[in-house]
Specification:
This protein is an alpha/beta fold and 363 residues long. It folds into two domains: 174 residues, Rossmann fold; 181 residues, Up-down Bundle (Glutathione S-transferase Yfyf (Class Pi), Chain A, domain 2). The chain contains ten helices and 15 strands. It is globular.
């Protein structure tokens, strides 16, 4: 998988940027804070997923004074070349064309092209609330199996409806009949649980291996589902029965994947509470690296790796180790705010200033 060229028009602070990355190798995007290097990586990631890794609305993506932003590019994979064109209006849905034909479902784009994105906000996956780790597991499942992304949406719809019934019950009369929604919750929740379990099983070994290369000891990574058992559906229904009274008291659903977590530990201690800043940063980076390896195993070719500022929280030795580990992984784009963070093995360097990009030779 590789990006052949990308063009941004009126995207964030980029009036017009068109650039062609090296076919394979490490590209370093260099620029001070606010110059547009992260915006460039964000635009590239949009080509692969239609989704921004930073915001959920369109308005911040469109340059001031313009009605819409445009992102275009050509991606090459084992299945051939894919031309992706995205129009992003200030309000309303974005319009996506793949090979000049409109695309209505994002998964139809994601099944053709793959990328993995790391940003400093990924530190929340290690140190933040369980919701951040659930989001990561769902992103991992979507990256591995794009056609199954509807599993998450189906579960969320069921959960919302079930919670609405619980909230609206005023008591002390007969409680709401949850039988139909219980059945739906068990069905969709069991499917999501199995999907998350498989995603973690695929990425955890590579993530732990990469962490060991950096730190000298392993990252323990284990899925902790709300419900588990040899017969998951039976266990799910039994657990619902056990918590029924508590649910009526608290007026919310207490069993299901929305209560899952991902256990992360270093030196046998929970990373969330006991990892140093450097350890937590390395763990977050290695989780994305593990996902990249899992996608490679699943598809037979490496995804494009897009790493925003991966070196800033690492000491010089670990910076070198990360840069060396990125060699041979296909096309890799990394950003750096400081010249001293540019890897010695970079194959190309893009200087970003005020939304413009200049290509210079490698160091």
């Amino acid at each position: 998988m590789r990006l052949r060229w990308v063009e941004l028009r009126d995207f964030r602070n980029h009036p017009h940027t068109r650039i062609e990355p090296v076919p394979d190798g490490l590209v370093c995007v260099v620029g001070g804070n606010g110059e547009g290097k992260t915006n460039l990586l964000e635009g590239i990631y949009l080509l692969f997923t239609r989704s921004s890794p930073r915001v959920s609305v369109n308005l911040p993506l469109v340059r001031d004074g313009r009605d819409a932003a445009y992102v275009r590019g050509e991606i090459e994979s084992g299945g051939g070349r894919v031309l992706v064109e995205i129009e992003i209006p200030r309000q309303g849905a974005a319009k996506i064309h793949v090979n000049r034909s409109p695309v209505r479902r994002v998964r139809d784009l994601r099944r053709q092209v793959r990328a993995v994105f790391f940003s400093p906000e990924d530190l929340d996956v290690v140190r933040g609330d369980p919701s951040e780790r659930r989001r990561f597991m769902d992103e991992a499942a979507t990256a591995l199996w794009p056609l199954r992304e509807g599993v998450m949406a189906a579960y969320e719809r069921t959960l919302r409806q079930r919670n609405r019934l619980l909230r609206e019950w005023e008591g002390p009369g007969a409680p709401p009949d949850l039988a139909a929604w219980d059945a739906e919750l068990v069905e969709t929740g069991s499917t999501l649980t199995r999907l998350r379990a498989e995603a973690v099983e695929r990425l955890a070994p590579a993530a732990s291996e990469e962490f060991a290369k950096l730190a000298g000891y392993e990252l323990e990574c284990a899925y902790r589902p709300s419900v588990w058992g040899e017969n998951l559906e039976v266990a799910f229904r039994a657990r619902l029965g056990e918590r029924r009274g508590d649910e009526f008291v608290r007026r919310t659903s207490l069993v299901g994947p929305h209560r899952d977590d991902l256990d992360l530990a270093v030196r046998d201690l929970a990373a969330r509470a006991f990892a140093s800043h450097g350890e937590a940063w390395a763990a977050a980076l290695c989780l994305r690296g593990g996902l990249g390896s899992a996608v490679t195993d699943e598809t037979g070719e490496p995804p494009v790796l897009i790493l925003d500022d991966p070196f800033s929280a690492l000491d010089p030795r670990r910076q070198r180790v990360v840069a060396e580990r990125l060699t041979g992984l296909g096309q890799v784009l990394v950003s750096a705010a400081e010249e001293s963070h540019v890897p010695a093995n970079a194959d190309a360097i893009w200087d970003v200033s005020s939304g413009t990009v200049e290509v210079r030779g490698a160091v």
